[in-house]
Automatic annotation (TrEMBL):
Coiled coil residues, start to end: none
Domain (Acyl-CoA dehydrogenase/oxidase N-terminal): residue spans on this chain: 4-116
Co-factor(s): FAD
GO molecular function: acyl-CoA dehydrogenase activity; flavin adenine dinucleotide binding
Family: Belongs to the acyl-CoA dehydrogenase family.
Lineage: Bacteria, Bacillati, Actinomycetota, Actinomycetes, Glycomycetales
Superkingdom of origin: Bacteria
A Pfam family per the record: Acyl-CoA_dh_M
Oxidoreductase is among the record's keywords: yes
Protein name: Acyl-CoA dehydrogenase
Acyl-CoA oxidase/dehydrogenase middle domain segment(s): 120-213
Keyword Thylakoid belongs to the record: no
Keywords: FAD, Flavoprotein, Oxidoreductase
Length: 375
């Protein structure tokens, strides 16, 4: 599809930042497992975190397509920073923007839109996994406060120096799930140590615990008992965003593999001249191209107010598979060098598998697609 001049300029600005600011340094952050706070703040200055949020609260109100363009360009060089943005916006700030009260929006959105603060969405539980409706975390009203008890796992952006807000799902009555916002430093809230992850090592992922954690009744985000429907809606947008991120990873693997294949010589000629390598590169191009078409189509439907749940599932399923396949092929083209952690394709090989798991496993996406077919 053709981008507007504004969309193309925004994508180009993010691409330039990713290539000149993120790419030269992210390998060291990744190796240390360190969160790159300054890079994240600088992305905020570009407007990346506020692109979908209301203008009256510091955002640009531009929609999911514009956010996807940014995520693709960032993920082209690093998925850790990209998922930091994706989770903070589609599952975090968007929860406040779409379901929060006017007071909550005025209180929290300006910093979230500027990228000076991050929002975490605490959904997954140790006993739940894919069954997100299985919510053991409990919250009860007591003297005008929610008292929360429970545990969450695999929560992105929960423990950074920039974390402003954690929105948690909790059972608030029989068959009733609600979303409640908790600010860091609230007594009874504790955030566990950073996980030792296979990939996404420069992003922040931790468990979160609530032990008699008290927050004002006004911290309820959305209607009581509507939390299940709220997070299902948020996940649809999150899947489109993750598909854009996956496309960026697939494209980044192609970029690196193509450059290497043109430079690396074997038996006196560049390995790109070998048909087996050339065909592999052609397949990588095809995957990245079709993944881009899929996520953009879903994003346009979302921005136009159309139903896009099935399109989001299609995009997420296809793009995540494209990223995994391209990471595998790029590693193969790099040969032994592709097994070294300092190469971008080695990082991609470690990063991409989670794309088939996060925002609903690919098995869930197939289930949703099959359901749309009436089977």
């Amino acid at each position: 599809m053709r981008l507007t001049s504004e969309q193309a300029e925004f994508a180009a600005a993010v691409r330039d930042f990713a290539q000149t600011e993120i790419k030269p340094v992210i390998g060291d952050f990744y190796e240390r497992g360190e969160f790159p706070a300054n890079l994240v703040r600088d992305l905020g200055k570009l407007g990346v975190f506020g692109v979908t949020l209301p203008e009256e609260h510091g955002g640009a109100d531009e929609g999911l397509l514009m956010l996807g363009l940014a995520l693709e360009e960032i993920a082209r060089v690093d998925a850790s920073v990209a998922v930091t943005v994706e989770a903070a916006v589609t599952l975090g700030a968007e929860a406040v923007a779409q379901f929060g009260t006017d007071e909550q929006k005025h209180r929290w959105l300006p910093r979230l839109a500027s990228g000076q603060g991050l929002c975490a969405f605490a959904l997954t539980e140790p006993s739940g996994g894919t069954d997100a409706g299985h919510t053991d975390t409990r919250a009860r009203l007591e003297a005008g406060e929610w008292v929360i008890d429970g545990a969450k796992c695999f929560i992105t952006n929960a423990g950074t120096e920039m974390t402003d807000l954690i929105i948690a799902t909790a059972t608030t009555g029989p068959g009733e799930v609600s979303c409640i916002a908790v600010e860091p430093g609230t007594p009874g809230l504790s955030v566990g140590p950073e996980y030792s992850k296979v990939g996404w090592r420069a992003s922040d992922t931790r468990p979160v615990y609530f032990d008699g954690c008290r927050v004002p009744e006004a911290n309820l985000v959305g209607q009581r008992g509507e939390g299940f429907h709220q997070f299902l809606h948020l996940l649809e947008g999150g899947r489109v965003a993750l598909a854009a991120l996956s496309t960026g990873s697939a494209q980044g693997c192609l970029d690196e593999a193509l450059a290497h294949a043109k430079e690396r010589e074997s038996f006196g000629k560049p390995i790109a001249t070998n048909q087996s390598i050339a065909f592999m590169l052609a397949d990588m191009r095809l995957r990245a191209h079709t993944a881009r078409l899929a996520w953009m189509d879903a994003a346009v439907k979302a921005d136009d107010g159309e139903s896009f749940g099935t399109d989001a599932a299609l995009a997420k399923l296809h793009a995540s598979g494209a990223a995994v396949d391209n990471a595998r092929d790029a590693t193969q083209i790099f040969g032994g060098y592709g097994f070294m952690n300092e190469t971008p394709v080695a990082r991609a090989w470690r990063d991409c598998k989670i794309l088939e798991i996060g925002e609903g496993t690919n098995e869930v996406q197939r289930m949703l697609i099959a359901r749309s077919l009436g089977v």
